[in-house]
Amino acid sequence: MRFTSLVIELIRARPRLIVWIAVLLQATMWLLVALLFYRSPPGNLATLLAFGREYQVGTDLGPPLSLWLADIAYRAAGGHVFGVYVLAELCEIATFIALYHLSRAVVGSQQAVLAVLLTMTVLAFSSSALDFGPLVLARPLWALLLLHSWQIIGQRRGNAWFAWSIEAGLLLLTTPAAVFLLALLVIFALSTAGGRRTLRALDPLFALVVVAVLALPYAVWLMRAQTLALPALPQTADLGARAIHAAWLLGGLVFGAIAVPVLSFLNTPLFAGKSEEAPIIYRPPVEPLARNFVYFFALAPALGAVLISGLFGFETVVGGAGVVLVMSGLAMVVMAGDLIAMRRARMLRTVWAAAVIAPAAGVVLAVLFLPWTGTGEIATSMPAHAISDFFDESFARRTNHRLRAVAGETQLASLITLHSGRPHLFIDANPARTPWMSQAKFSESGGVVVWRASDTGGTPPPEILARFPGIVPEVPRAFEWLVNGRQGLLRIGWAIVRPKGA
By three-state DSSP, how is residue 449 classified? Predict the structure, then answer.
């Protein structure tokens, strides 16, 4: 009697259900990690929230949309960063659902499930799940743009132009890489007969009007800020180092997508049992235009981003690995053929689950065990609430005024701005980054200056003392980490700048 696993039968009978179960389980896993093991935001999320509460049209962090949405989510959650974590996971879910609909249009519902499952392993390794920002928000917008671009070019659905224009405008308000990504869409359209036919209609003109209206405020800010200039080209002597840097970036992308070729290799006949009759996942034949669309947007964004980043010496891939690799799973499925035999399904499920769970497990293990080595700090183990409450209450008790601004070390100051009072962040080392606050305004409103204490007296670093010559350091405040281990307590030096007239 032939036996087929329940998962395979569900892929055949209820493909959409499998996709929703997989993406919701992954989102739940990361939200549980945040609830149990994050006492402060990861990465630059606290700084992003400090910028977002100002609702500036543009900042040095880039276009404003992700900053605004982060602040809205933070306020909607009652002043808790968990709301931003939920927003990040909603972006993740939207990315996979959009990818599923695109894959279904190309390879059918059953193999579309495989494309989504493979892509989940790519994004798990190549991009952050909870560090919301432009790179996270760009993923669903890019996936939706690809979906509606295929509906316009491949399926000739003119009603998709309006959604396409909205998504293109929002992408321009999300990441500077939007210009590069939209240029790739134009290049593909011009290189195909169907795309050229589509561009000869009037719909693209109306779409351009919508995109221009959405992006106009940020474009005006860019022109006023005089930041439209391209980075300087490298000198001839630097080309070798830039080439090596580009090779490292390309290697990072390949490593991020390593689970896709591993799973494909494990599904080859080499690992099939002699008597095994593997179940087949079927699809209708893929038309040549669809095949070219998938291969182009699986390779061109990644290779183009590596070339640009290597040429101009950017530290990371333009657009983010999660954006440029979003089509890699679908490309592998298209390459696999019309009939995909699922050999050793139990082993494949185990390897896939390990690839999806491994990044979250790595975060948990780092939080619990890295402090015992004494080799480094875990930023998410800082007690954000205790830090913000202490300095807010100390300032109010000393001055009888509400804390309105925080300066000093940016990471610590950003954590204090998360307090319910939402004081302004002032980056005193580079005041141009925070145009809503200046040295004069800070002196007028008063505030707290913080730094990492290097001694028991809380002596300020020379650069902070130079910018705030009149401050009197207080006794440093010590805070415990989530797991102290062998590392010392977090000691924060601080001083109060009293409001004028207090």
Answer: strand
In this structure, the strands spanning 405-408 and 447-452 are parallel
Q: Which residues of the chain have pLDDT under 70?
A: 1-5, 226-230, 271-276, 374-375, 501-502
Checking 238-244 for CB contacts under 8 A at 24+ apart, the result is 238/313, 242/310, 242/311, 242/313, 243/310
In this structure, the number of other CB atoms found within 10 A of the CB of residue 13 comes to: 11
- ∠ CA(49), CA(55), CA(56), 5° rounding? 110
The pTM assigned to this predicted structure is 0.91
**DSSP one-letter code for 486:** T
Q: What residue spans define the domains of the chain?
A: 6-156+234-366, 382-497
Rounded to an integer, what distance in angstroms lies between the CA atom of residue 108 and that of residue 11? Answer: 11
pLDDT (tens digit, 9 = 90+) per residue, 412-468? 999 999 887 889 999 988 888 888 988 889 888 888 999 988 877 778 888 888 888
Closest CA to 190 of 182, 198, 201: 198
DSSP 294-361: HHHHHHHHHHHHHHHHHHHT-SS-TT-HHHHTTTHHHHHHHHH-SEEE-TTHHHHHHHHHHHHHHHHH
Q: What is the residue-wise DSSP string for 189-220?
A: HHHSHHHHHHHTSSHHHHHHHHHHHHHHHHHH
| 303: β partners | none
Angle at alpha carbon of residue 54, lines to 52 and 57, rounded to 5°:
80
Instruction: Tell me 425's DSSP state.
Output: E
Contact status, residue 172 vs residue 218, Cβ threshold 8 Å: yes
Question: Which one-letter amino acid corresponds to residue 266?
Answer: L
Strand bridging mode 424-425 / 405-408 = parallel
Using the 8-state DSSP alphabet, how is residue 229 labeled?
P
